[in-house]
Request: fold
Amino acid sequence: MNVLIVDTTSARAHAEAWLANESPHTNRLWTTQRSDLVQNIADLAIDKSGEHLLHTDPEGVAEFARNNNIDLAIVSQEDALLAGTSDALTEYGIAVFGPSQKAAEVETSKVFSKELMVKTGQPTADFVVCKTYDEAIKYATPRATFENPLYSKRDRPARGKGVDKITCLDDLHKALMPITDIENDFSLTQRVILEKGLVGFEIGLHAWVNGRDYVMYPFAMVDHKTVDENDEGSMTGGMGVVAPAPGIAVDDIEKLGRQFVAPTINELYESGRSFTGVLYSGLILTAEGPMKLEDNARPGDPETQVWAPLLDTDKSDFIEIALACSQDRLSELPEIHWRKAASTCLILAARGYPDATEAGQVITGLKDIDDNLARVFDYGTRIDEEGNYIANAGRSLSVGRTAYKGESLEVVLEENYEAASRIKFDGERPVMRGDVGKKVLSTEFKQRVKDTRHLF
Reply:
């Protein structure tokens, strides 16, 4: 089987390529990911002019797939979904693991997503949709405080950086400036959601989805979204993940799936937006019970770098699962098997990330790491003429550790940090959080799960 992975700037693409390469069904593998590390296991997709194939060029991707006899295309990047790449591939008769442009609006339009939550009765934060700068200021003026912050969310994708914490009007002004047309009476170039801040612990759920059918990943994951420790600093695409979240059992996951996944995919199906692929639901465990923060129309990043090593590829094949979903037969698959182990990853970013990344930093220490020590997935490094690895993106590397011998999450995290400490950017420690996993191991997290499980 010839497989194409359409995902250009994420370590998720490397992890998916690794899983696809593990499958005996994969004959040849292409990817739009330009990383030199990824190209050790997959061919780089080149367009007809000899240039790198753009994931946001639906017709170009579809034409490449047809010309190279692609049997299955895995579309995992939000930009590609927003551009309608899945739709173009489907029109060419190619099996696609990834939602249509309309189904993907559950992520690509925050307004659509929030309104769907309300329509289907899913608990979520109170919010308002603002169409103008003045509307946003008027709503926030009596509400945004340090004790009770609001959060602003742009309607359209911003690669994980379109969410801002609003504690005062100055915060809101800074958040709105990138999408404000100052010359046109401070009008907004897209809608903005302002929603009430919720207090609690965030977890992420993943589910394989095919229309009305879905299969939950049997564990919750915890991402660390800000660049600084203690969940402070600028929002990023994610700086580290741990799984499974302690205290949340398989039965709990199934209950949460019925509460937050089933209503979403059923509504999408009923409205002519049948979903195929992986649905990622972000929840927050509040004192009043779980509430939904967001849906993503693709596997998470860095979450994929954590769940990929947990899939038991001796018993369950990633390509078989993806193909079954694309062919509307997820319900016919045998049980999907997972390894019972702790899995973690740490994100290593270039100096200045996420606000003013300095490209071109030389990465050393990669040769000191093998698969027995840690698994490295790449965001887009390159090798220069002298054979040096060069940071070619903000988030540069995902360094993960998965324990298959019963080691505790605490031990896995300690080993993960030891492995990551061997890697330097220009001889210095890269941008990396030092507290990944701390909150899920805390007494407060475990107590919150215990106190609210009956509300799942």
